[in-house]
Design brief:
Blueprint (H helix, E strand, L loop, with lengths): L9 E5 L4 H7 L6 H17 L3 E6 L5 E10 L11 E4 L2 E3 L8 H17 L8 E7 L3 H9 L3 E2 L5 E2 L7 E8 L6
Parallel strand pairs: 4-6
Antiparallel strand pairs: 1-2, 2-3, 3-4, 3-5, 6-9, 7-9, 8-9
C-alpha cells in the first residue's frame, strides 16, 4: 500500500440512465463480473432497494471511478437480521493504474455509511463488502481501510463458476460526544 496522501476526488450521486452511468457502463473492465453487476445487480438495488451510485471526478473533471452503497439484509446472518450497509460494487476506470483513487473512493463510501448508520432508528453500524479471492489488490485496499475478513473460508460464487469470494466488514459507527 502506498504512503501517499489520498487523491482529491469530487463525489457526485448519479441516477440510473444518466450520461455518467452510461459512460461507466462502457468502461473496458478486465473481469466480466463487474459489467454484469453494473448492468444487472446495481439497477435492481437502486430501483427496488436503497442503493446509491456515486461517480468520482478528479480536479480536471474526468470521471475516474464509481462506488455503490446499499442498505440491505444480504449479510443479516451477521447482524441478527438487522438491515446493514453494503458496498455491492466499486471500481476505478480500468485504463487508469494505481493512482490512489480506490483509497479515496473507499474512504468516501465508509464516511457515507457512517452517516447512514448514525441516524436514529438506522441500520446496523457494520459495513460489508465481498471480494473475489483473485483480487489481491482490492483485498489489500480493503484491509488497509480497516476491513476484516469475517468468513472463515472463501465462498463459491454460484453466478461466476469457479470463482471464490470473501466477505469483509468494518464497523463504521461515528463517535458520539
Amino acid at each position: 500500500m502506498s504512503d501517499r496522501s489520498p487523491v482529491p476526488l469530487t463525489p457526485a450521486a448519479i441516477p440510473l440512465g444518466s450520461a455518467e452511468f452510461e459512460a461507466i457502463s462502457r468502461w473496458p473492465f478486465v473481469d466480466p463480473f463487474v459489467s454484469r453487476l453494473l448492468r444487472d445487480d446495481i439497477p435492481q438495488r437502486v430501483q427496488f432497494g436503497n442503493c446509491r451510485i456515486w461517480t468520482y471526478r478528479e480536479p480536471s473533471g474526468q470521471i475516474v471511478g464509481f462506488g455503490t452503497l446499499d442498505v440491505c439484509n444480504d449479510y443479516g446472518a451477521f447482524t441478527a437480521g438487522r438491515f446493514h450497509l453494503y458496498i455491492p460494487l466499486l471500481a476505478v476506470n480500468p485504463t487508469i493504474k494505481s493512482l490512489g483513487y480506490g483509497t479515496t473512493i473507499i474512504r468516501h463510501l465508509t464516511d457515507e455509511a457512517a452517516l447512514l448508520a448514525s441516524r436514529p432508528g438506522g441500520c446496523h453500524d457494520v459495513l460489508f463488502l465481498d471480494v473475489y479471492t483473485t483480487s489481491g489488490k482490492a483485498i489489500d485496499l480493503y484491509k488497509a481501510a480497516g476491513f476484516e475478513q469475517i468468513t472463515p473460508e472463501p465462498i463459491p460464487d454460484l453466478q461466476e463458476m469457479g470463482k471464490l469470494y470473501l466477505v469483509m466488514a468494518k464497523r463504521v459507527a461515528l463517535a458520539t460526544a
